[in-house]
Design brief:
By secondary structure, the protein is an alpha+beta fold. It is built from three helices and six strands; from the N terminus they run H-H-E-E-H-E-E-E-E.
């Protein structure tokens, strides 16, 4: 049988172990969310290039505001319809200098993107700085807002 002092030490050691385990799990969870976000950003750009409207529906929030560098804003339905109907065709999207800042269930992804798009049979090239705001809902990241600015 253990003495009262031994039991107290065991309890203290168990509490210490649980606290460490909690921090490890929390850090692991944050890393997992960041990895999911990086994947979501890449999948979003791929979906634009592939005109994959099913993926875009999953990756965008219903309140999406997709801002272009000329001041034109699209909602979720308009963005998806314009890709599906061929109003916009993304030929290439190259991202660089990407920075990600995550605070709880909100993230900002900013960086430089070079975009080639065909709009109304006209090929256009843009060098942009992009800011994307993502929210974490029901286990996945959703694009809430994006704004492009010409460089």
């Amino acid at each position: 049988m253990m003495s009262a002092e031994a039991v107290q030490r065991l309890i203290i050691n168990m509490k210490f172990f649980l606290i460490i385990l909690l921090f490890v799990c929390a850090g692991s969870s944050a890393q997992q969310k960041n990895k999911k976000l990086q994947t979501a950003v890449g999948n979003f750009y791929s979906a634009l290039l592939d005109k994959d409207t099913a993926v875009l529906k999953l990756l965008t929030d219903d309140k999406l505001v997709y801002g272009h560098s000329n001041g034109w804003n699209q909602g979720k339905t308009e963005l998806i319809n314009d890709l599906f109907n061929g109003k916009l065709t993304y030929s290439s999207i190259k991202q660089s200098n990407e920075e990600i800042v995550v605070d709880k269930n909100t993230a900002c992804v900013r960086g430089k993107i070079d975009v080639t798009v065909v709009m109304s049979a006209t090929k256009l090239n843009f060098n942009l700085y992009s800011l994307m705001v993502w929210i974490y809902k029901k286990g996945s990241w959703k694009l809430l807002s994006r704004q492009g600015i010409k460089l």
